[in-house]
Amino acid sequence: MDSRDESCGCVAIRGIVHANPRLTGANPPATARGMTVIENNPETPEALVAALAARGRAAQRQLALMGDMAKAEALRHAAAALREDETSILAANARDLAQGEANGLSSAMLDRLRLDPARLAGIADAVAQVAALPDPVGQVIDHSMAPSGLALSRVRIPIGLIGIIYESRPNVTADAAALCVRAGNAVLLRGGSEAVHSNRAINAAMARGLARGGVPEAAVQLVPDQDRAVVGAMLAAAGLLDMIVPRGGKGLVARVQADARVPVLAHLDGICHTYVHHAADPAMAQAIAVNAKLRRTGICGAMETLLLDARFEGSGAVCAALLDAGCELRGDARAQALDPRIGAASEDDWGTEYLEAILSVAVVDGIDAAMTHIAAHGSGHTEAIVTDDPHAAERFLAEVDSAIVMVNASTQFADGGEFGLGAEIGIATGRLHARGPVALEGLTTYKWQVRGTGQTRP
Fold it and tell me: Residue 405 falls within a domain, yes or no?
């Protein structure tokens, strides 16, 4: 969730802190309560991942046997631990923010990284919300009777051991752990160096709370090594990890999709469009456009391109509201004619996920032109139409091929929490397994259960 968006809570490798140069430095991880410890010293990233995966798979087999009430209670303990550790978590986050500012992180990246009491409370609330969700494990998807008399059922089961590779969003540490545990999966977390102290503090709290509820210690592990070679080892860990979920910038996700030998659940980027139809209410169009772009510019559901119908009479006012709110607009020739403050857009702008207060604007000749533009430049994430014409709204919903399609709403609602799913792993823009906000159901697979009465096949 975007709203949730160093006591060392990472996985400690006994003997590796001083022996492995990748783990030495100003803040090497130290053995602490609630941390997974591997006795041997893996000398390579591949050995490290293999050791962590072996522990994770063993823990997952135990976790899969825990019932609904036990998993929910463990997550409530984890939420309470996050609240108890507010001071230490915010102090760790302040260290990351200071380092990020010194390293020149963009304002959008710093916004993703930043925690405050309200955001941390949101993280804890999200964990508690996941605890309250129905357990998908054991759910019977469908049931039928074959002509042979065999009773056939498809039943939801955990995927197994999931690797999460993410950047600069410390809330993912809690969200991913909560969702994976609720769905009976173990998880191997590899956070970005930008949020290393925040991730460790959050993971320490989560580990302590989950342990109170009886969750195996190695069910949630945070990789201690920030060497990028470890990411490569995770991507190559076919047979050790069952699925990889990347959350981060375009470069990270592109690398994961290109190099992974493990199934990947990902979206490449969030180039989200809002199309203002000629029948839109001007006040609604203005409010939605400003919110969709500027509420939080650094989230993947932020609008990156505004499409204005040539027949919409309030286009100038919408652009002026965005400009007055501090947003830079880059437009085509017709958009530039709406306000002298609008700069010229290049061809690259239509395919750019800015994640900042920058917006590309185009004037289009009707809904067909809008949908053609979205098909040509969109990333399949989230698109919205603003209109009072129900026929246009239904056409847009039916014909735009993105994971999330909205009518008269800000694209900033593209969030698992807002969809009633609790926290989310991310927004999937592909076509297989899961699409849109990926929460509990997206973290399960199924198996066939067949019950017979002595049948033999002729």
Answer: yes
